[in-house]
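At your convenience, could you comment on the folded chain following this short note?
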Amino acid sequence: MELETNPASEASEIVYEAAPVFRAEHGESRITRLVEQQSAKVPSVLFLGAALAAMSASFVLELAGKRRASDFIGMWPGPILTMGVYNKLVKTFGAR
């Protein structure tokens, strides 16, 4: 007789649905919905391209000896990619 490795494995297959949260304080304003609708129209590849362009510009400025400008432009890719993630979430889940 062969024993199962994990006798409780069937218990972990239970799927629980998340409870919906509909509270007035969690509602979005008209402005937020408008921003999300407009943001969803922007292609996701635009954010990736903008981040790559900022990295390239920073690199060129560094080679040109413009250290301060290079550092300034070099800080842009992180926030640009974060905006791209927000854009993707809005497209995937929509305004809630």
Remarks:
- Residues 44-91 form one domain.
